[in-house]
Amino acid sequence: MLTINSIKNGIVIDHIKSSYGIKIFNYLQLDKADFSVALIMNAFSNKLGKKDIIKIENNIDIDLTMLGLIDPNITINIIESENIKRKLNLQLPKKVEGIIRCNNPRCITSVEKYIPHIFNLIDKEKGKYKCKYCDEIYGIMEE
Ligand SMILES: [Zn+2]
Predict the structure, then answer these.
(1) What is the CA(135)–ligand 1 centre distance, in A?
(2) Which residues fall inside 5 Å of ion ligand 1, going by CB?
(3) Is the dihedral of CA 101, 107, 110, 114 positive or negative?
(4) How far apart are the first and last CA of the chain?
(5) Are 94 and 109 in contact (CB under 8 A)?
């Protein structure tokens, strides 16, 4: 059994879908961190079978919208003095601005470059988003 020391103050990102840990690790640029970080891959999970966990010995700002898009089933534990101070359950954001781009060439966002790309969640189960300005559908689980 692999053991990693528990952290004093920081963040534990738990219940990451197996193989998504490295994506999130890179997205948060933890490879450049000057504090302690751990990426645990394929840990045992009752719920998921296998899961990834990231432990961060620091309080960093995390964009929850972006993280919710990468994997909505993640839990985030905020650790203070070795205790869980706060637990956040992520979910798919209802509205996403400036992350997903509309690929419809006839969409107003393709014509007018200054208009922000805004997508609204239309199907939570399937992870479907619809462009605010046209009928373009984007499925985040189809990658
Ligand atoms: Zn559009």
Answers:
(1) 6
(2) 102, 104, 107, 131, 133-134, 136
(3) negative
(4) 33
(5) no
For ligand 1, the distance from its centroid to the CA atom of residue 68, given in whole angstroms, is 22
Instruction: Quote the ligand 1 centre to 51 CA distance (angstroms).
Output: 35
Whole-model pTM: value is: 0.81
Instruction: Please give the single-letter amino acid code of residue 8.
Output: K
Tell me the HSE value of 100 on the side-chain side, using a 13 A CA sphere.
28
- For 85-137, how does the pLDDT look when each residue is reduced to its tens digit (9 = 90+)? 999 999 899 999 998 999 999 999 999 989 999 999 999 989 999 999 999 99
Query: What confidence tens digit (pLDDT) does each residue in 43-66 have?
Result: 998 888 999 999 999 999 888 888
φ and ψ of 111, to 5 deg: -85, -50
Query: In the block, which residue shows the tokens 């961190």?
Result: 33
